[in-house]
Write a structure and sequence with these properties.
mainly alpha, 3 helices, Coiled coil domain-containing protein
Length: 94
């Protein structure tokens, strides 16, 4: 997934990520008890990262001009990290 470029796109991507995390939760609920604990921990970390990014986005709503470019860069970096973590968690189900 490419990093979002606009505030609206960021909001949409975070919503999509929330849905994908929910899908992982559903899959984890069907795993063995031993695997379930590990998967739930990964999912919890994904949710925490996503929530942090939502907080950043909420702060971003008030940013303009140069501040927007700075926050956008940080958001894109955090997005890349979140996406890599999601892919790693998703690989656990293959």
């Amino acid at each position: 997934m490419s990093p979002p470029d606009s505030k609206g796109e960021m909001e949409q991507k975070l919503g999509e990520m929330g849905s994908k995390i929910d899908e992982l939760k559903a899959k984890a609920s069907q795993a063995s008890e031993e695997r379930k604990a590990e998967l739930e921990q990964q999912i919890s970390q994904l949710q925490e990262r996503r929530n942090e990014m939502q907080s950043q986005l909420n702060n971003l709503q008030e940013s303009t001009g140069e501040a927007w470019e700075e926050v956008k860069s940080g958001f894109q970096s955090a997005w890349d990290d979140l996406n890599r973590a999601f892919e790693k968690a998703q690989d656990q189900f293959k």
